Amino acid sequence: MQRTIKTFSIDKINEFKSNLLTWSQQYETVIWLDSNQYNKSYSSFDCALAADEFTAIKTDYFNAFEKLKEYQTITKDYIFGYISYDVKNDIEQLTSKNFDGLGFADLYFFQPQKLVFIKGNSVEFQYLKMVDDEIENDFEVISKLSFHSEKKELKNKADLKIKLRIHKEEYHKKVTKVLEHIHRGDIYEANFCQEFYAENATINPLEVYQHLNEISEPPFATFLKMEHQYLLSASPERYIKKEGTKIISQPIKGTAKRLISTIDDDKIAFDLSRDEKERSENVMIVDLVRNDLSKIAKKGSVKVEELCKVYSFKQVHQLISTVVSEVEENTHPIDIIRETFPMGSMTGAPKFSAMKIIEELEETKRGLYSGTVGYFTPTGDFDFNVVIRSILYNEEKKYISYSVGGAITAKSTAEKEYEECLLKAKAMRHVLLNSK
Fold first, then answer.
1. How is 156-219 classified by DSSP, letter by letter?
2. 157 carries an active-site annotation
3. Are 47 and 34 in contact (CB under 8 A)?
4. pLDDT in tens, 202-215
5. How wide is the angle at C-alpha 32 spanned by C-alphas 29 and 38, nearest 5°?
6. Which of 53, 189, 217, 237 is catalytic?
7. Is 70 one of the catalytic residues?
8. Residues of the chain with pLDDT > 90: what percent?
9. By the 8 A CB rule, do 294 and 196 touch?
10. 43: pLDDT confidence band, cut at 50, 70 and 90?
11. Residue of 67, 88, 225, 253 marked active site
């Protein structure tokens, strides 16, 4: 579908970014992707805004990938959206029967009427023909918005009562059960997750997202609004990207906290790079990703570009690996995602056994958490993150949820895994309990 493209040069780009996101809140459907200028390979833009649904697909997991394939093929345009973790049930004989307080659809994509890309100081508007006469006016309105525009008054923020779905003692018991499966040889590794939640809660989603992004500055930040449902994500992880015939996957496994002293911080990063347990977690997932990519890659094209490299973010250091492969030109983009979904870093190895075990032990339906948000281009390229370090909010149900997980291996201890979960949950908890 044809889009009208107009490009503008901006001096105060950060101010424009903030205004653009604030301006977008008038629409029922918004996806905002922000790399926070993180210096990383394979970046297509600094940020993107997709707003105002023209066409869309919303479905449960049954035949979800076939439906998405048909929609993406027919649309031949930019489509933005998400695939929830539970679409695993479309690929394997699996179920999701755990408690769900959020009620997100399993899969949702939309074709935006209005699309804005920012790269450096350049802002590119790509509007569908039916609304392209609004580009100049929208640009003027966004540019003139007050940077410190009044924020909606927060209600009940200080009164939020964050609860644990699995308490510490129960968590220890469940991790012990995972370890029993590992020692029996059922699995090598499982990503076991737990939910923190608040009921009867009202927040300002935009302000919470901005605060979360400010204290984390991750490369795959996402603000998603779908009527009364929101995702506020500070994800540091890419799931999978397609550039022409090249496929890139960048799993994260291995976490260490940041320290104030530069000397101590450098040492903890160095220790992480040498940590046998953390490296083994990462290598197991790299093997899983290589196996997933090989199902659809050209023979012999799967390669590990980086293994267990330390990347530093505001809150934590992470071990990240980069696995690449080549596909045939006629390979359908949806088939690439279907063969690799859900991402190995959020499941475990072997994948099917791990998914079965974690479904039995976890108390909450994962839904969009540990799923993926991203986009397809008109030519069939794509880029998708991993939904972690994220707050999910259903405004209608007044339900807030954030989940965290850790990779359980033979070397794991329940206490250390619990501490790692609390470290990962720290930023989400902080922004929910502390309005600026």
1. SGGG---EESS-HHHHHHHHHHHHHHHHHTS-SEEEEEEEEEESS----HHHHHHHHHHHH--T
2. no
3. yes
4. 999 999 999 999 99
5. 170
6. 237
7. no
8. 93
9. no
10. confident
11. 253
